[in-house]
Amino acid sequence: PVLVKLREVVKTYHTPAGDFPALRGLSADFERGHLIGVIGKSGAGKSTLVNMLTGVDHLSSGEIWVDGVGVHALNENELALWRGRNVGVIYQSFQLLPNLTLLDNVMMPMDLCGLYHPQRSPQRAMELLDLVEMADQAFKIPSTISGGQQQRAAIARALANDPQLIVADEPTGSLDSATAETIFLLFERLVAQGKTIVMVTHDHSLARRMTRIYHIADGLWIDDEKDY
Ligand code: ADP
Ligand code: ADP
Description:
Layout: E1 2-15, E2 18-31, E3 35-39, H1 46-53, E4 61-66, E5 69-70, H2 76-86, E6 87-90, H3 102-112, H4 120-131, H5 147-158, E7 165-169, H6 177-192, E8 196-201, H7 204-207, E9 212-217, E10 220-222
Parallel strand pairs: 3-8, 3-9, 6-7, 7-8
Antiparallel strand pairs: 1-2, 1-4, 4-5, 9-10
The site of one adenosine-5'-diphosphate has 12 residues, from strand 1, strand 2 and helix 1.
């Protein structure tokens, strides 16, 4: 079963220097329960694709369907609501709020979506921190823990509203390879539990372990067997 359908997705940036086509007609079916890799050089269009998949920016043309919702057709308000409840995002630089405890960081998406409940939310946040083996650090603030631990907390936050789709933009890019491995193992576990993860990466050795890999260059998919 397909969770995400991309149909001829085009994104053109309009700049003073002219129009720049960052995505030039991407189509793909991302299946449920898969760990999908997107790999490509700097400037290939990976961040732009992430912004389209997570609904932080509009496409120029084409369609994106996620779990039957035509994301391309949503207006600004609908998009914000849809994103908060249906997509978990994980960044290279973790992006935890520095003045909040890990527990409060994990509850933030519930709060933002109007799903906060005074008893259930802290309990669920603690369960999610437990899932990423960070429950014992729940009351620490991000600056007092390691990068790998921050990324674990960020994964718990991405799961807060129980999204089907998780989009991770170079989630291991700031981590040493041993720590990257622990994060990747966690992704494999989430996928085994039915989540669908789209992960942008530069790391070919991780990419080789994914269930599907897409290579992108100049805003188009390319065949790139020779990289292996
Ligand atoms: P990647 O994430 O693969 O490095 P990006 O998606 O960030 O690639 O960028 C793809 C291309 O689009 C690059 O040439 C980049 O300079 C350009 N680009 C990205 N964002 C913008 C923007 N907001 N305005 C103009 N050009 C952009
Ligand atoms: P990455 O580390 O993924 O390659 P970039 O450094 O290319 O990311 O871009 C970081 C952010 O800046 C992205 O949101 C991208 O859309 C934006 N961006 C990239 N290139 C340009 C550009 N030429 N003009 C405006 N914004 C850009």
